Amino acid sequence: MSVQLEQIKQKTKSIIRRIVWILVVILIASGIGYFTYSQMSYSDGYRSGQLVKISRRGVLFKTYEGSLNLSPNGLMTNWDFSAKNGQVAKKLEENEGKLVRLHYSQRYRVFFWQGDTEYIVDAVEVVQ
Predict the structure, then answer these.
(1) pTM confidence score
(2) Interatomic CA distance for residues 25 and 54, integer angstroms
(3) Where are the beta strands (DSSP E) in 24-127?
């Protein structure tokens, strides 16, 4: 009787280990899939206008957020964006108030440490 009990315990442990490993693999695969999906860009292009503001915001994770006035006649038609890194943000800060052309990529999902908007600016050109 105790031999059968030991065999049942071993089988149960084996089944539990398999279930745990399967759940771990599913969790890791889901995390990798979500991260890959969220980093994919489904749109990219250029937007031009007057750079209205660039600021560094956030409580734990500081991100660079900006606003571009797209209207040439002075009406405020804002387009909000996030800057990719500090170098791009520095170039934006240097050109605040000027006409600029920004290259952006639009992502499906953005993690909170990447910015507040789905538009990520990665290049800045000053329009003469």
Answers:
(1) 0.70
(2) 42
(3) 41-57, 63-69, 78-83, 99-107, 119-126
